[in-house]
Design brief:
The complex is a heterodimer of chains A (332) and B (512). Chain A has 332 residues and is α/β, with parallel strands linked by helices. Helices cover 33% and strands 26% of the residues of chain A. Chain A folds into two domains: 139 residues; 151 residues, Dihydrodipicolinate Reductase, domain 2 (2-Layer Sandwich). In chain A, helix 2 crosses helix 9, helix 3 packs parallel to helix 4 and helix 5 crosses helix 10. The radius of gyration of chain A is 22 Å and the shape is elongated. Chain B is globular. The longest helix of chain B has 20 residues. In chain B, 35% of the residues lie in helices and 20% in strands. By secondary structure, chain B is α/β, with parallel strands linked by helices. Chain B is built from 16 helices and 18 strands. An eight-stranded mixed beta sheet of chain B has the order 8-12-13-7-14-15-16-17, with helices on both faces. Classes of the chains: A alpha/beta (332), B alpha/beta (512).
Chain lengths: 332, 512
């Protein structure tokens, strides 16, 4: 339902009246979504709606693209007459371009149920959104960003790294990092054989091809943080013995995806490459420790699933934060 | 396991992958269960990257298949029955390389020698490390023969010097107490109890596992989980399906043996047991066994009062006409087999003294519905409510299928100037609560057996005790013809005799 109101109070009354038509039976979270990029608006709305449908949650979309025409939209999930249970995923979308930061805070505090975690998905790209960000951040338990959501280059990741350096206590999640867990597992799998563990300490070159910079930088940062490498310039690390590991990154293919990796050790080449099925990676080893091709599935990498993981895993993610700090050093 | 601990890249990574390599053998591989459940479960474990890196799958049955024909048949089965849709390349082709087939008889030593060769080939070529998991998805009548042949072929744990050998046994474990004991005697000659995984797929369902979480991970329920606050407990396993293609089996089994003795009794144990001292398999199974031991034996002369049976007649399900039980394929036209069973049990211990547990299960009922309903006692004093207001008892419902979740019914004031009270429901649904779809039970249980986690499998002492509980009813029903059969219409709530059983206690069944 679209509600036209001229003041915050009037629109709050109208929203509350609409929400009261159904009852929220179980609520697991508040999900606040900020959008100011018209190009990504539909993509983000679709995923927010998907999450809203799956979770008994309250989703508040603050749309600063101006596309909402000054209205507030309330979407409630009615009780399914065929089911004893209620799928509750109320969503309120507000044209945030009409309001200042104080009014947005009023919406959040008035509408979001208390006592459940609040996740802020920040997809803002405009500098003018900064006051809204600063106002909404204290109201959230977890900040969710996507450093490869809109851009292929490293600019967004640099902002994330700078933010974490400035405010290390904010519980932060980056979808670009979360997409990498199958790749991390796959790379670790190369070296699960104890006989190959020493290979990890003879890696000299690291090649990653990805659709955006964040994925490659995060994987490099993760390996560095696990293996005691330190960044030495933008394209190299130094290991504990002072030996250099070159880091080659190529941006190619679908954005937000890793396409191939190769780790060169003194004796072998460890390869991983996406197959014609984008959900399957083939891995193989050449050289002294040659192994024939094996296949690895890449499960649960859709954005809604990643957001769910961000919800379920509360508190700081030490591995992510350590890797992010390494990335920050790499970016200078 | 050691390798993952010392690999620095593993630190902080969460992986569900099973670490032990393993070959799994499906006996009865050409059967319905393998096609519908087992192979799709293994495929989905592979898709989720849970299968170990080194694995082999061997089908064994009497049907003649080449390896490729069996793979093709399993590909079709996965395409049709897998929850994740058709199997696609390149992963399917990779998976298929791990699948092979042995055609043989369950009592033929030569067939088991061929099986042994297939497993040794898996060890050599697929790196399965001598670990073997044997899955008996065959009729119970051949369980003992398979176990005997496994031992004779050197495939039992005694001869396995390089890895482990475990066995999964499908229900029913025996057809009565004597046959169950005889089967146990045969199986335990070869496999120690810790190596026997008696599968009851109900235990792999998320809501069943959540019974323990609800009870022992929350402080608010346990204080009222006893005779002081609980009026009665109803456990229901209702199906809309008939016997489908299983008429021959079912007509020799019936609802009491097919459902009550295993699935429903397991639910009773989980809901009534004392808190276990730890969360390991044996601590939990100790408590399940203890509470089953406390179930009061039904005396022969009480069977007609404390149990009810039914058999469905023709009727309609979802608006479609369906035949009566005696008209189903492979069912005797004068069958005395019950398709509905209801039982009232008492648990003679401090927690549950005088609290009746009503158990029921049936086919061709009005709705598919499995649940446990804890009905709490009435208010000691009625303070609120207008004369016409009905003050319902609080009810906590654990929904098992098709919905999965928890519902609590309580009384609340109707908005307005007067103190009208109405019953309302507070619901929690797994799918929406956590945003994930529960994996089918077989995926969880096969994975657990590969890991060596027996928590969700039934131990022999509990199986034996469950048979002891139902035997007086079974004996009575086998030895007396129920002249009222068929006594309920397909699509109904069950036979009137079941309603009368509760009416005698001034109670009634929850609507299915």
């Amino acid at each position: 339902m679209n509600l036209e109101s001229s003041t915050v109070a009037a629109s709050l009354d109208a929203i509350r009246a609409e929400l009261s038509r159904t009852k929220l039976s179980t609520s697991t979270l508040n999900f606040i979504v900020w959008i100011d990029d018209p190009n990504r608006r539909d993509w983000i709305l679709e995923r927010a709606a998907k999450l809203s449908r799956k979770h008994p949650s309250f989703t508040l979309v603050l749309d600063n693209t101006g596309a909402d025409g000054g209205s507030a939209t309330v979407t409630t999930c009615p009780r399914d007459p065929e089911s004893h249970f209620t799928v509750q995923g109320e969503q309120v979308r507000i044209d945030a371009s009409r309001f200042g930061a104080e009014a947005l805070v009023e919406y959040v505090t008035a509408l979001c149920p208390s006592g459940v975690p609040t996740l802020l998905w920040w997809s803002g790209i405009r500098e003018s959104s900064r006051p809204a960000f600063e106002a909404l951040l204290p109201l959230s338990d977890t900040l969710l960003v996507d450093s490869s959501g809109a851009v292929r280059d490293e600019s967004a990741l640099r902002l994330v790294a700078d933010f974490h350096r400035a405010r290390p206590t904010v519980v932060l999640r980056d979808l670009a990092w979360m997409r990498l867990s199958p790749w991390q597992d796959m790379i670790a799998n190369f070296f699960d054989n104890p006989a190959l563990l020493n290979e990890l300490y003879t890696i000299r070159k690291l090649y990653i091809t990805s659709g955006s910079a964040s994925e490659a930088l995060y994987l490099g940062g993760w390996l560095a943080s696990r293996l005691g490498w330190t960044a030495s310039g933008r394209d190299a690390f130094t290991d504990a013995q002072g030996k250099e590991i070159s880091f080659s990154r190529t941006i190619d293919g679908e954005i937000r995806r890793v396409h191939s990796i190769c780790l060169d050790s003194d004796t072998s080449w460890y390869h991983g490459e996406v197959t014609e099925d984008p959900t399957v990676v083939s891995i193989w080893v050449e050289g002294d420790h040659a192994r024939e091709v094996r296949l690895f599935p890449l499960p649960a990498i859709d954005t809604a699933s990643l957001i769910e993981r961000a919800i379920l895993e509360q508190g700081p993610d030490e591995m992510f934060e350590t890797s992010l700090r390494t990335v920050g050093t790499l970016l200078g | 396991m050691t390798s993952t601990l010392v690999n620095p890249l593993r630190k902080g990574l969460v992986s569900s992958r099973i670490t032990d390599p393993c070959s799994i053998v499906f006996f009865g591989a050409s059967g319905d269960l393998t096609k519908r459940m087992l192979m799709p479960a293994l495929w989905n474990l592979r898709l989720a990257d849970i299968l170990p890196e080194h694995y082999g799958i061997v089908g064994f049955s009497r049907s003649q298949f080449s390896d490729d024909e069996f793979r093709d048949a399993m590909h079709e089965a996965i395409d049709e029955f897998s929850r994740t849709g058709p199997a696609k390349d390149p992963l399917w082709s990779d998976f298929a390389k791990h699948v092979s087939y042995v055609s043989g008889k369950f009592d033929d030593p030569a067939s088991f020698a061929t099986l042994r060769e297939a497993l040794e080939r898996n060890d050599r070529e697929l790196g399965t490390g001598g670990n073997r998991l044997f899955y008996l998805s065959t009729p119970p009548s051949v369980f003992a023969a398979i176990v005997e042949q496994l031992d004779a072929a050197g495939l039992g744990p005694r001869d396995n010097k390089t890895g482990w050998s475990r066995i999964i046994v499908e229900k029913p474990f025996g057809t009565d107490l004597d046959s169950a004991r005889a089967l146990q005697a045969e199986v335990s000659k070869v496999f120690d109890e810790k190596l026997i995984y008696r599968i009851d797929h109900y235990l792999g369902k998320e809501p069943v596992q959540d019974i323990m979480a609800l009870r022992f991970a929350n402080v608010i329920f346990e204080p009222i989980w006893n005779r002081r606050y609980v009026d009665s407990v109803q456990i229901t396993a209702a199906e809309t399906v008939g016997v489908e293609q299983r008429g021959g089996y079912y007509d020799n089994a019936g609802a009491l043996r097919d459902m009550i003795q295993n699935h429903v009794m397991n639910l009773l144990a989980l809901v009534a047991m004392e808190p276990p001292v730890a969360s390991d398999a044996d601590s939990i199974r100790d408590e399940k066994y203890k509470v089953l031991r406390a179930v009061r034996p039904i005396e022969a002369n009480r069977v007609t009062l404390d149990a009810a049976r039914g058999q469905y007649d023709a009727g309609s399900i979802g608006g479609k006409p369906v035949p009566g039980y005696r008209e189903e394929p492979d069912v005797r036209p004068d069958s005395n087999t019950e398709t509905y069973a209801a039982v009232k049990l008492w648990i003679d211990n401090w927690r549950w003294a005088d609290v009746p547990f009503y158990l029921r299960s049936g086919k061709r009922l009005g709705h598919k519905n499995s649940e446990i309903a804890i009905r709490f006692r009435s208010l000691p004093h009625r303070l609120f409510g207008e004369a016409g207001d009905a003050l319902d008892n609080n009810v906590l419902v654990m929904k098992i299928q098709p919905e999965e979740g928890i519902s609590l019914r309580f009384n609340a004031k109707v908005p307005g100037p007067k103190m009208h009270i109405r019953s309302v429901s507070m619901d929690f649904n797994y799918g929406t609560g956590f945003g994930v779809v529960s994996a089918p039970a077989y995926e969880r249980l096969i994975g657990d057996a590969m890991r060596g986690d027996a928590t969700l499998f039934t131990r022999w002492d509990a199986v034996e005790t469950a048979w002891q509980i139902v035997m007086p009813i079974l004996d009575r029903w086998l030895n007396t013809i129920d002249e009222s059969f068929p006594n309920y219409s397909a699509g109904s709530q069950g036979p009137p005799s079941s309603d009368r059983m509760l009416a005698m206690d001034d109670r009634e069944w929850r609507k299915i």
